[in-house]
Amino acid sequence: MSKPLLEIRNLAVEFGPLKRPLRVVHNVTLAVGVGESVGVVGESGSGKSITALSVLRLVPVPPARISGEIVFAGRDLLKLPLNQMPDIRGKEIGMIFQEPMSSLNPVMTIGDQIEEALLLHENWPATERRRRVIELLKLVGMPDPEGRLRAYPDQFSGGMRQRVVAAIAMACNPKLLIADEPTTALDVTIQAQVLELMLDIRRRFNSAILLISHDLGVVAEICERVVVMYAGHIMEDADTRSLFHNPRHPYTQGLLKSVPTLTETRHRLYQIQGTVPPPGTIRQGCPFRPRCPVAMDRCAVEMPPLLAHGPTHRAACWATAPEVGA
Amino acid sequence: MSVLIDVQGLGKTFADTSIRFGPKPKPVRAVDNVSFQVLKGETLAVVGESGCGKSTLGRLLLRLIEPSEGQVRLDGTDLTCLSKPALRQMRARMQMVFQDPFGSLSPRRTVAQIITEPMESFGLVRGRSQRRERVAELLAQVGLPAAYMDRRPRQFSGGQRQRIGIARAISVDPAFIVADEPVSALDVSVQAQIINLLQDLQEQKNFSFLFIAHDLAVVRHIAHRVAVMYLGRIVELGPKEQIYSAPQHPYTEALLSAAPHPDPDRPHARIVLQGDVPSPSNVPSGCAFHGRCPIAQAICAVERPPLVEVAPGQSAACHFARPHPLTGVAA
Amino acid sequence: MTEFSLADANPEALAEREAIAAEPGLWDTLQDVFFGRPSTMIALVVVLLFIVIAVFAPWIAPADPLRQSFLQINKLPTWSHWLGTDQYGRDVLSRLIYGSRNSLIFGLLSPVFAAICGTILGVTAGYFGGVVDRVISRVIDMLMAFPELLLAILIAAALGGSFWNIVVVLTVAFTPGFARVSRASTLAVKQEPYVEAAVAAGVRTHVIIFRHVVPNILAPIVVLMTLWSASSIRIEATLSFLGIGTQPPNPSWGNIIRDGLTNMFATQWPIVSGGLAITIVVLAISIIGDAVRDVLDPETDQ
After folding, report:
1. Is the ipTM of this complex over 0.85?
2. Closest-CA residue of chain B to A291
3. pLDDT tens-digit profile of C148-190?
4. How much is the pTM?
5. Which of A27, A198, B80, C107 is the Cys-Cys partner for C233 at CB 3.0 to 4.6 Å?
6. Contact C23/B at CB under 8 A
7. Exposure letters C52-72 (e unless 16+ CB within 10 A, then b)
8. DSSP string for B148-206
């Protein structure tokens, strides 16, 4: 693989007082290649959304303190002056949020909202813009795009709104699309429509995708590579097949075993003991240790680094670590 | 097994009763002519998307919402014509577990106060020591240490709060429990714990269970029978194995195929339904599903298919339930 | 931040958790809010001080508040008259001390009565809805159409200006505000899942109202009460000025200011000291109101 499009290195985000900081993201390092789709999976408090928002510099500083590097297309976004970020947001990085209703302006027609993105970033004549807006609406599968230009967001259902949001995100052909739980607020059959839309975007635009989700199923369908986060740490980073067939971290293993599926016939579900720790409660060692079935003494003291389990598979666990020198 | 809950022709129309000028909003037909039974010790899962009336149905069964028509019998007693005091007495036999683990526990009350509330209202506990003993016992049954009883809900995580809500529901040893999406607000790694807990408790206490969910995968583990709802009506009802392996209604089939699956190699022939669920204030004519149905014919827009038995124990409301070869997921 | 515990079934994590102290009780919260913040503490002392002054007025006041002396008209403060004298030569400090009796009683009593009546009406309307709600709401709307002062004047004119009549007048004038607020809050609280949970659990309606509804709507009512207690002192002053409040020559803070106003160019001490007294008490009451609201709110951080 050539140089990655987005490279996050040692990203750390913390809140609260300097003396006793609340660290919500710990040394996150991940890369998204050109045209690659990467999923970030995690539960509440895993730091997955903060990581995604940090890329767009949408985490307010202060109160947050962010360190590390976020290199996008050769520039460190964290070092860029904030007033240059609007040129990157929307133009080079598109964003799809969880709530399709609240990310659209209720008093603007959808045509105007899509056009606004073009107006900000492209210097096109009005007729050209209008043509592009209709083309975008067609691309996201909006029926009767010419007729719906003058419609307001509340005239659409959840699935259709998410299509509009996707059209805005894709308006300027961004190199990277960040989708934060794009299907979570939607019904199952509508979720299916949006998943198809995401796959379609992947095929047609050749944009890289960073998909944030708590749903392993959604990630399995869309992404080539998956990063599993827990309590602000990356636990495992692997290509999708390898992660789902041969998970190396006890947390990933537990998650995969405990998720109810349609084909499963076992009577009882496997369960991970305990609950997700709130940020700041575990300050030393591996955050999964209190719930881990294979925890060792070392886990209480030292957070394991991401250890390689093959060319495209890394996991942060002492217990399943490959033999040294092997 | 004998029948515990018998529902006949249950319906609910929400109409705006306020005095106002101008046109009134159209009444919403939330539940439409629903009939089914729940056996003793059985779990019936009700599955559907938002707006299908599944939560309303659960509340109608407990008469937390007054039904517009139809009957609900619990062990032969018709709940729909009971007086308020008699209904309150019946609540000792039917309880509810709620979706929202944060909102359903009063933030001002301690865990012990929350759990003893149903017992107190039926005079089942007397005296402080007996109360605390009983709370400790119930906490143990839901897997929480007794030391937590004097704390308040905000000190607990979602999964723990849901356990407290479950302890409250089982405290009066009810014969029937309605659980409205009890795991959908929880973290993925905690859902399995709660599903297993509910299953274990049912095995010990043998209550009947109406389990409401939007997700067919979740109910796979807990249900004996599954009812699929669409726009206020039951479109398919049957034993779990048959629903999952041989669905007879195209909507059930679409729901089954729509769920994303955590296996990148599983071949998917996903049926993507076009359009959205119509509004319950404007239910389409004939079969409510015909506008989105991949196999709809002319008759579907005109005639409403009744829920008829298509296989032993399995009924579906579709004109083409039998001739159309449907495939589910392999069991 | 809220606390969670790690332990569900893992004994090691459980042991880790037990070190953390259990939930603070109501008493701890009270102590925290009242004694933890200096402003609240000071406000509490101020209000208590004024109550003590009002109760023991005859022992504290240096002079008879009604005794006039034409030799001592419009005096500036001296050792015998700490706040000077008014246009009739009455001792301002003594009048202020005696006046606190009327002002405090009106300022505290009427808002409390109004809060009780208004909450009963509002909760009934909000919880039961339907016809009950419509009737109560329309009556409240009607009362709200009149400004408090006008309403007070109307009722006072009809009933006469005795002490209890004024309490009744102010109570009636303030009730609609409380009813509105408590009705709206009740409607919101009624939607809370825990209220539905209580109904489903078989809890009796009156228990639900007193246990789950009323405690959760108290915060806005307490705040409103502190606001109205300020208005109450003010309106009593206006009524006194119009001759239907406290009857002269009896003092209240209101009529001290009114009398002072007509005599403003001879001496400023009566208005200034009367105004200051009202300001200090009202401020202290609002600070206490805020503290009470914090105690009542279970989600407040401690």
Report:
1. no
2. B189
3. 778 778 877 787 767 777 788 888 888 999 999 999 999 999 9
4. 0.80
5. C107
6. yes
7. ebbeebeeebebebeeeeeeb
8. GGGS-GGGS-HHHHHHHHHHHHHTT--SEEEEESTTTTS-HHHHHHHHHHHHHHHHHH-
